[in-house]
Design goal:
single chain, alpha+beta, Hypothetical protein Ta1206 fold, 4 helices, 25% helix
């Protein structure tokens, strides 16, 4: 099952996507510039193999819901996210606002 829901933070609307898979759930919330995602995101791949795409993204681990993803500190971020002031330890919702 796939759920797509609007996420509103400080009058900014983002898109939350929840994909139910056997024994896990993929979670992502995106803005027009970037996204945050659950532990399935491979930040090293984005930084190394896909560097030319300049992807703005962050990863949070141990999250089970979209709300968890908003409230969790980011475990890792891409180099492009760092250029926007997004850093490891920043809450997901704060990173999303910088991506808006």
């Amino acid at each position: 099952m796939i759920n797509v829901v609007p996420i509103v933070i400080n009058d900014q609307t983002m898109v939350g996507v929840e994909v139910k898979l056997p024994k896990t759930t993929l979670l992502t919330i995106n803005t027009s510039k970037g996204y945050i995602m659950c532990g399935a995101l491979d930040v090293n791949l984005l930084n190394e193999k896909l560097a030319d795409r300049q992807i703005i993204a962050g990863r949070a681990v141990g999250v089970r819901t979209l709300q968890d993803l908003l409230d969790a500190p980011l475990e890792s971020v891409t180099f492009e996210a760092e250029k926007l002031g997004i850093h490891t330890g920043m809450l997901g919702k704060d990173a999303l606002l910088r991506m808006s």
